[in-house]
Amino acid sequence: MADSTHLLNSKQMARFVAEGYLRFDELVPDELNRAVKREMDDQAVPREEAGSPLSTIWNDTAVGRVFRLPEIEGIIHSLVGKDPLYDHHAVHTVAAGHHFGQHWHADAIIDTRKHFDIQFMYFAHDTPREMGGTLILPGSHYRRISESDIARYHNFVGQVPMVCKAGTVIVLHHGMWHCAQPNRTDEKRYMFKLRLNPTVRQLRLWNTDDIDDPEVNHILSTNQPWHGNEERIEHVNRIHFWRFLTGDDQFDNHYWLSRIENEPELV
Amino acid sequence: MSESRQKLLVLYLRTPDLHAGVVAWSEYDGTASADERHTSGDAADSGGATNPPYDSVVDAMRDGWRVVQFPQQYPAYPGTEYQVSYLKYEYILEKMEVVDG
Q: Exposure check for chain B: N or C terminus, fewer CB within 10 A?
Protein backbone atom coordinates (compact mmCIF):
# COMPACT_ATOMS: atom_id res chain seq x y z
CA MET A 1 0.00 0.00 0.00
CA ALA A 2 1.51 3.34 -1.03
CA ASP A 3 1.87 6.01 1.61
CA SER A 4 1.16 9.63 0.80
CA THR A 5 4.84 10.37 0.16
CA HIS A 6 4.58 8.51 -3.13
CA LEU A 7 1.32 9.98 -4.33
CA LEU A 8 1.42 12.46 -7.17
CA ASN A 9 1.05 16.12 -6.30
CA SER A 10 -1.32 18.63 -7.87
CA LYS A 11 1.28 20.03 -10.22
CA GLN A 12 1.96 16.55 -11.59
CA MET A 13 -1.77 15.96 -11.96
CA ALA A 14 -2.10 19.26 -13.82
CA ARG A 15 0.67 18.10 -16.14
CA PHE A 16 -1.24 14.86 -16.73
CA VAL A 17 -4.38 16.85 -17.50
CA ALA A 18 -2.56 19.20 -19.88
CA GLU A 19 -0.26 16.76 -21.67
CA GLY A 20 -1.88 13.37 -21.09
CA TYR A 21 1.17 11.68 -19.63
CA LEU A 22 3.82 11.72 -16.94
CA ARG A 23 7.38 10.49 -17.27
CA PHE A 24 9.56 8.94 -14.56
CA ASP A 25 13.14 8.34 -15.64
CA GLU A 26 15.07 5.34 -14.28
CA LEU A 27 12.40 4.63 -11.68
CA VAL A 28 12.76 0.84 -11.66
CA PRO A 29 15.99 -0.60 -10.18
CA ASP A 30 18.44 -2.28 -12.55
CA GLU A 31 18.14 -5.70 -10.89
CA LEU A 32 14.40 -5.68 -11.52
CA ASN A 33 14.82 -4.41 -15.08
CA ARG A 34 17.07 -7.35 -15.87
CA ALA A 35 14.65 -9.81 -14.28
CA VAL A 36 11.72 -8.42 -16.28
CA LYS A 37 13.72 -8.55 -19.49
CA ARG A 38 14.42 -12.23 -18.82
CA GLU A 39 10.69 -12.80 -18.31
CA MET A 40 9.93 -11.07 -21.61
CA ASP A 41 12.66 -13.09 -23.38
CA ASP A 42 11.11 -16.26 -21.97
CA GLN A 43 7.53 -15.12 -22.68
CA ALA A 44 6.90 -15.81 -19.01
CA VAL A 45 4.47 -13.00 -18.17
CA PRO A 46 1.07 -14.67 -17.95
CA ARG A 47 -1.93 -13.12 -19.64
CA GLU A 48 -4.58 -12.58 -17.00
CA GLU A 49 -8.33 -12.33 -17.26
CA ALA A 50 -9.54 -8.83 -18.11
CA GLY A 51 -11.21 -7.27 -15.10
CA SER A 52 -9.09 -9.07 -12.51
CA PRO A 53 -8.00 -6.94 -9.55
CA LEU A 54 -4.38 -5.95 -10.08
CA SER A 55 -3.69 -6.97 -6.49
CA THR A 56 -4.47 -10.60 -7.32
CA ILE A 57 -2.19 -11.15 -10.32
CA TRP A 58 1.50 -11.63 -11.05
CA ASN A 59 2.35 -12.42 -7.43
CA ASP A 60 5.34 -14.55 -8.41
CA THR A 61 6.78 -12.50 -11.25
CA ALA A 62 9.36 -9.76 -11.58
CA VAL A 63 6.91 -7.64 -13.52
CA GLY A 64 4.50 -7.96 -10.61
CA ARG A 65 7.23 -6.59 -8.33
CA VAL A 66 7.60 -3.60 -10.66
CA PHE A 67 3.95 -2.67 -10.29
CA ARG A 68 4.15 -3.14 -6.53
CA LEU A 69 7.05 -0.71 -6.10
CA PRO A 70 5.88 2.02 -3.72
CA GLU A 71 6.61 4.67 -6.34
CA ILE A 72 4.52 2.88 -8.97
CA GLU A 73 1.73 2.21 -6.50
CA GLY A 74 1.69 5.91 -5.69
CA ILE A 75 1.16 6.72 -9.36
CA ILE A 76 -1.57 4.10 -9.66
CA HIS A 77 -3.40 5.23 -6.51
CA SER A 78 -3.28 8.87 -7.62
CA LEU A 79 -4.81 8.19 -11.02
CA VAL A 80 -7.10 5.16 -10.76
CA GLY A 81 -7.36 4.44 -7.03
CA LYS A 82 -6.02 1.79 -4.71
CA ASP A 83 -7.66 -1.25 -6.24
CA PRO A 84 -7.65 -0.96 -10.03
CA LEU A 85 -8.49 -3.71 -12.47
CA TYR A 86 -6.13 -5.35 -14.91
CA ASP A 87 -7.42 -4.62 -18.42
CA HIS A 88 -4.65 -6.17 -20.48
CA HIS A 89 -0.92 -6.08 -20.96
CA ALA A 90 1.31 -6.44 -23.99
CA VAL A 91 4.98 -7.17 -24.43
CA HIS A 92 5.50 -4.95 -27.44
CA THR A 93 8.47 -6.11 -29.45
CA VAL A 94 10.24 -4.49 -32.37
CA ALA A 95 12.67 -6.86 -34.05
CA ALA A 96 16.26 -5.88 -34.74
CA GLY A 97 16.59 -4.19 -38.10
CA HIS A 98 12.88 -3.47 -38.42
CA HIS A 99 12.82 -0.24 -40.43
CA PHE A 100 9.09 0.43 -40.50
CA GLY A 101 7.45 2.93 -38.20
CA GLN A 102 4.05 1.86 -36.93
CA HIS A 103 1.08 4.00 -37.92
CA TRP A 104 -0.24 6.49 -35.37
CA HIS A 105 -3.14 5.22 -33.31
CA ALA A 106 -4.86 5.36 -29.97
CA ASP A 107 -5.61 2.13 -28.17
CA ALA A 108 -9.03 0.49 -27.90
CA ILE A 109 -11.91 2.45 -29.45
CA ILE A 110 -13.43 5.92 -29.34
CA ASP A 111 -14.05 6.64 -25.65
CA THR A 112 -16.30 9.46 -24.51
CA ARG A 113 -15.88 9.08 -20.74
CA LYS A 114 -14.54 11.64 -18.31
CA HIS A 115 -13.49 8.63 -16.21
CA PHE A 116 -10.26 7.35 -17.61
CA ASP A 117 -7.99 4.34 -17.77
CA ILE A 118 -4.24 4.56 -17.57
CA GLN A 119 -1.59 2.82 -19.58
CA PHE A 120 1.90 2.25 -18.29
CA MET A 121 4.74 1.99 -20.76
CA TYR A 122 7.77 0.48 -19.07
CA PHE A 123 11.17 0.40 -20.76
CA ALA A 124 13.21 -2.32 -19.07
CA HIS A 125 16.37 -1.68 -21.08
CA ASP A 126 18.11 1.38 -22.50
CA THR A 127 16.24 2.76 -25.49
CA PRO A 128 18.32 5.09 -27.68
CA ARG A 129 16.67 6.85 -30.65
CA GLU A 130 18.04 4.35 -33.16
CA MET A 131 16.11 1.68 -31.23
CA GLY A 132 12.81 3.56 -31.29
CA GLY A 133 11.22 3.86 -28.86
CA THR A 134 7.52 4.55 -28.68
CA LEU A 135 6.56 7.89 -30.24
CA ILE A 136 3.91 9.82 -28.32
CA LEU A 137 1.98 13.01 -29.05
CA PRO A 138 1.59 15.17 -25.93
CA GLY A 139 -1.84 16.74 -25.62
CA SER A 140 -3.64 14.27 -27.89
CA HIS A 141 -5.70 12.55 -25.17
CA TYR A 142 -8.91 14.57 -25.59
CA ARG A 143 -9.15 13.87 -29.32
CA ARG A 144 -12.14 11.72 -30.17
CA ILE A 145 -10.88 9.20 -32.67
CA SER A 146 -11.12 5.45 -32.96
CA GLU A 147 -7.87 3.47 -33.00
CA SER A 148 -6.21 3.86 -36.43
CA ASP A 149 -8.40 6.69 -37.71
CA ILE A 150 -5.28 8.86 -37.52
CA ALA A 151 -3.00 6.59 -39.56
CA ARG A 152 -2.79 9.12 -42.42
CA TYR A 153 -0.67 11.43 -40.25
CA HIS A 154 3.10 10.90 -40.23
CA ASN A 155 4.70 13.66 -38.21
CA PHE A 156 3.65 16.38 -35.80
CA VAL A 157 5.50 19.39 -34.48
CA GLY A 158 6.00 18.45 -30.84
CA GLN A 159 5.93 14.66 -31.11
CA VAL A 160 8.15 12.98 -28.51
CA PRO A 161 10.11 9.76 -29.08
CA MET A 162 10.69 7.83 -25.88
CA VAL A 163 14.47 7.88 -25.70
CA CYS A 164 15.36 6.73 -22.21
CA LYS A 165 17.48 4.69 -19.87
CA ALA A 166 16.48 1.33 -18.48
CA GLY A 167 13.83 1.50 -15.78
CA THR A 168 11.98 4.47 -17.25
CA VAL A 169 8.22 4.46 -16.94
CA ILE A 170 5.60 6.69 -18.50
CA VAL A 171 1.95 6.66 -17.58
CA LEU A 172 -0.59 7.76 -20.17
CA HIS A 173 -4.23 8.75 -20.31
CA HIS A 174 -5.96 6.05 -22.39
CA GLY A 175 -6.63 8.47 -25.24
CA MET A 176 -2.99 9.27 -25.98
CA TRP A 177 -1.87 8.97 -29.61
CA HIS A 178 1.27 6.90 -30.08
CA CYS A 179 3.11 4.52 -32.41
CA ALA A 180 6.14 2.25 -32.36
CA GLN A 181 9.29 3.44 -34.08
CA PRO A 182 11.81 1.59 -36.27
CA ASN A 183 14.57 -0.35 -34.55
CA ARG A 184 17.80 0.15 -36.48
CA THR A 185 19.97 -1.70 -33.98
CA ASP A 186 20.84 -5.40 -33.98
CA GLU A 187 19.00 -6.00 -30.70
CA LYS A 188 15.33 -6.70 -30.10
CA ARG A 189 13.47 -3.82 -28.44
CA TYR A 190 10.83 -4.28 -25.77
CA MET A 191 8.18 -2.00 -24.33
CA PHE A 192 5.95 -3.45 -21.64
CA LYS A 193 2.45 -2.00 -21.63
CA LEU A 194 -0.14 -2.40 -18.90
CA ARG A 195 -3.66 -0.94 -18.97
CA LEU A 196 -5.58 -0.44 -15.72
CA ASN A 197 -9.22 0.51 -15.06
CA PRO A 198 -10.43 2.51 -12.04
CA THR A 199 -12.88 1.03 -9.56
CA VAL A 200 -13.54 4.27 -7.68
CA ARG A 201 -14.63 7.76 -8.68
CA GLN A 202 -11.43 9.54 -9.69
CA LEU A 203 -11.85 12.40 -7.26
CA ARG A 204 -8.87 13.97 -5.45
CA LEU A 205 -7.01 10.68 -5.25
CA TRP A 206 -3.59 12.36 -5.25
CA ASN A 207 -1.83 14.47 -2.59
CA THR A 208 -3.75 17.73 -2.85
CA ASP A 209 -1.64 19.72 -0.37
CA ASP A 210 -0.54 22.02 -3.23
CA ILE A 211 -3.95 22.27 -4.91
CA ASP A 212 -3.95 26.09 -4.65
CA ASP A 213 -0.43 26.55 -6.00
CA PRO A 214 -0.62 29.13 -8.85
CA GLU A 215 1.69 26.88 -10.83
CA VAL A 216 -1.25 24.50 -11.33
CA ASN A 217 -3.09 27.05 -13.48
CA HIS A 218 0.10 27.84 -15.33
CA ILE A 219 0.65 24.17 -16.18
CA LEU A 220 -2.96 23.81 -17.30
CA SER A 221 -2.30 26.62 -19.79
CA THR A 222 0.67 24.95 -21.44
CA ASN A 223 0.23 24.91 -25.21
CA GLN A 224 1.26 22.18 -27.59
CA PRO A 225 2.80 23.40 -30.86
CA TRP A 226 0.55 21.18 -33.00
CA HIS A 227 -2.74 22.39 -31.48
CA GLY A 228 -2.77 25.53 -33.60
CA ASN A 229 -6.09 27.36 -33.62
CA GLU A 230 -7.61 24.75 -31.27
CA GLU A 231 -5.43 25.75 -28.31
CA ARG A 232 -8.31 27.48 -26.56
CA ILE A 233 -10.69 24.58 -27.10
CA GLU A 234 -8.03 22.33 -25.57
CA HIS A 235 -7.87 24.67 -22.55
CA VAL A 236 -11.63 24.37 -22.12
CA ASN A 237 -11.38 20.57 -22.15
CA ARG A 238 -8.67 20.73 -19.48
CA ILE A 239 -10.80 22.97 -17.29
CA HIS A 240 -13.70 20.53 -17.55
CA PHE A 241 -11.39 17.64 -16.71
CA TRP A 242 -9.88 19.48 -13.72
CA ARG A 243 -13.39 20.16 -12.44
CA PHE A 244 -14.12 16.42 -12.74
CA LEU A 245 -10.94 15.46 -10.89
CA THR A 246 -11.26 18.02 -8.10
CA GLY A 247 -15.05 18.16 -7.71
CA ASP A 248 -14.80 21.95 -7.97
CA ASP A 249 -17.53 22.92 -10.44
CA GLN A 250 -16.52 26.58 -10.22
CA PHE A 251 -12.90 26.07 -11.21
CA ASP A 252 -11.78 28.20 -14.14
CA ASN A 253 -8.55 29.22 -15.79
CA HIS A 254 -8.08 32.50 -17.65
CA TYR A 255 -11.87 33.08 -17.47
CA TRP A 256 -12.57 30.76 -20.42
CA LEU A 257 -15.61 29.03 -18.93
CA SER A 258 -16.81 31.89 -16.70
CA ARG A 259 -17.37 33.97 -19.81
CA ILE A 260 -19.42 31.45 -21.75
CA GLU A 261 -21.32 30.23 -18.67
CA ASN A 262 -22.52 33.76 -17.90
CA GLU A 263 -26.21 33.76 -18.78
CA PRO A 264 -27.86 36.35 -16.49
CA GLU A 265 -31.60 36.07 -15.89
CA LEU A 266 -31.93 39.25 -13.81
CA VAL A 267 -34.58 41.53 -15.37
CA MET B 1 9.39 3.24 -71.01
CA SER B 2 8.79 6.31 -68.86
CA GLU B 3 5.54 7.18 -67.12
CA SER B 4 4.20 10.01 -64.99
CA ARG B 5 3.62 9.28 -61.31
CA GLN B 6 2.17 11.22 -58.41
CA LYS B 7 3.77 12.37 -55.16
CA LEU B 8 1.48 13.62 -52.41
CA LEU B 9 2.30 16.00 -49.62
CA VAL B 10 -0.29 16.54 -46.89
CA LEU B 11 0.16 19.66 -44.79
CA TYR B 12 -1.82 20.49 -41.65
CA LEU B 13 -1.86 24.16 -40.74
CA ARG B 14 -2.41 26.25 -37.60
CA THR B 15 -5.33 28.02 -39.28
CA PRO B 16 -7.10 27.79 -42.68
CA ASP B 17 -4.85 30.56 -44.02
CA LEU B 18 -2.53 29.04 -46.61
CA HIS B 19 0.29 31.14 -45.18
CA ALA B 20 -0.20 29.64 -41.71
CA GLY B 21 2.49 27.49 -40.13
CA VAL B 22 2.61 23.73 -40.57
CA VAL B 23 1.78 21.69 -37.43
CA ALA B 24 1.83 18.21 -38.99
CA TRP B 25 2.60 16.61 -42.31
CA SER B 26 2.70 13.39 -44.33
CA GLU B 27 4.37 12.36 -47.53
CA TYR B 28 3.24 9.64 -49.93
CA ASP B 29 5.57 9.00 -52.83
CA GLY B 30 4.13 7.10 -55.77
CA THR B 31 7.42 7.40 -57.65
CA ALA B 32 9.28 5.19 -55.20
CA SER B 33 9.15 1.43 -55.30
CA ALA B 34 7.94 -0.49 -52.28
CA ASP B 35 11.54 -1.39 -51.44
CA GLU B 36 12.64 2.23 -51.54
CA ARG B 37 9.97 3.44 -49.17
CA HIS B 38 12.07 3.01 -46.08
CA THR B 39 15.52 3.73 -47.39
CA SER B 40 15.48 7.46 -48.01
CA GLY B 41 15.38 8.95 -44.54
CA ASP B 42 11.93 7.57 -43.83
CA ALA B 43 10.20 10.90 -44.35
CA ALA B 44 7.20 8.87 -45.54
CA ASP B 45 6.76 7.17 -42.19
CA SER B 46 5.64 7.95 -38.65
CA GLY B 47 8.31 9.83 -36.76
CA GLY B 48 10.56 9.99 -39.80
CA ALA B 49 11.26 13.71 -39.57
CA THR B 50 11.52 16.38 -36.90
CA ASN B 51 10.85 19.51 -38.90
CA PRO B 52 8.17 20.15 -41.55
CA PRO B 53 9.39 20.13 -45.16
CA TYR B 54 7.83 23.58 -45.74
CA ASP B 55 6.81 26.51 -43.56
CA SER B 56 3.34 26.79 -45.12
CA VAL B 57 1.22 25.68 -48.07
CA VAL B 58 2.26 28.77 -50.00
CA ASP B 59 5.89 27.94 -49.32
CA ALA B 60 5.32 24.48 -50.84
CA MET B 61 3.50 26.02 -53.84
CA ARG B 62 6.59 28.14 -54.52
CA ASP B 63 8.52 24.89 -54.79
CA GLY B 64 6.20 23.52 -57.46
CA TRP B 65 3.60 21.66 -55.37
CA ARG B 66 0.02 21.97 -56.66
CA VAL B 67 -2.82 22.18 -54.15
CA VAL B 68 -5.39 19.54 -55.08
CA GLN B 69 -7.68 19.61 -52.03
CA PHE B 70 -8.84 22.22 -49.56
CA PRO B 71 -10.43 21.35 -46.21
CA GLN B 72 -14.12 22.14 -46.12
CA GLN B 73 -15.27 24.16 -43.14
CA TYR B 74 -18.52 23.41 -41.37
CA PRO B 75 -19.98 24.88 -38.20
CA ALA B 76 -19.87 22.49 -35.24
CA TYR B 77 -22.92 20.29 -34.82
CA PRO B 78 -24.87 21.40 -31.74
CA GLY B 79 -23.34 19.70 -28.72
CA THR B 80 -19.92 19.18 -30.30
CA GLU B 81 -18.65 22.75 -30.13
CA TYR B 82 -15.86 21.89 -27.69
CA GLN B 83 -14.91 18.48 -28.98
CA VAL B 84 -11.56 17.99 -30.62
CA SER B 85 -10.72 15.21 -33.01
CA TYR B 86 -8.88 15.23 -36.36
CA LEU B 87 -6.63 18.03 -37.53
CA LYS B 88 -8.98 20.47 -39.20
CA TYR B 89 -6.85 22.33 -41.72
CA GLU B 90 -5.61 19.60 -44.04
CA TYR B 91 -4.27 20.56 -47.46
CA ILE B 92 -3.31 17.94 -50.02
CA LEU B 93 -0.68 18.86 -52.60
CA GLU B 94 0.78 16.93 -55.52
CA LYS B 95 3.74 16.83 -57.83
CA MET B 96 3.88 14.70 -60.92
CA GLU B 97 7.23 13.16 -61.81
CA VAL B 98 8.32 11.17 -64.81
CA VAL B 99 9.94 7.89 -63.88
CA ASP B 100 11.28 4.95 -65.84
CA GLY B 101 8.59 2.29 -65.76
A: N
